[in-house]
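Need tokens for this chain, all 212 residues.
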Amino acid sequence: MRAGFDGVGGAVYSWYMGRPAVSRVVGRVLWGGDVAPHYASLAAVAEVRDGGVIVDAPCGTAPALELVPRGRTVRYVALDASEGMLERARERAARLAISGVELVRGDAAAIPVGGGDADLFLSLFGLHCFADPAAAVREIGRCLRPGGRAVVSMICRGPGLRQRVMVQPGRGGFGRVGTASELDGWLATAGLEVERRELSGPFAYVTAVRAA
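Here are the structure tokens for all 212 residues:
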């Protein structure tokens, strides 16, 4: 799976996800879902206080860096298992000249951030790739401070024919994969209270807050 994101597959994914108009077509035609909420959710980055901490895992090419307000100081921890994705994220950070960006190759279930340090945790279209997504969600809960926010998007298993055909655990870049209901359970177990939940085809979009 990591090799796929390091190579051509990752380059193609990065290309169309960096072009919302193209991505919307791919989402509708291929997956039968709307990706617009994914792009809208990135606005949470601009709400992080000066001096705040953002964790982006898995970060991919770290497109959310584009939303960090110029002149604002943040610690931005971008973690991914793919060196190819991290290299693209590195190029983006250099182009934007954003200081405080830490690029880490590692495991989303073991993030180098202290407990309760993060103001915002981004988990964007990554949980469905993991062998143990519940562990990754628990790590989200550990990293966030009380009142900190998690922005999560995930491809889910589901009852529809397209989901049964397209979303098969252990195949095509998918790991364990969960249902939308399972995602709700993982979040609750991690001490995260759902603020917003939206489903579109196989895509689940959730904003949740770390309980005090």
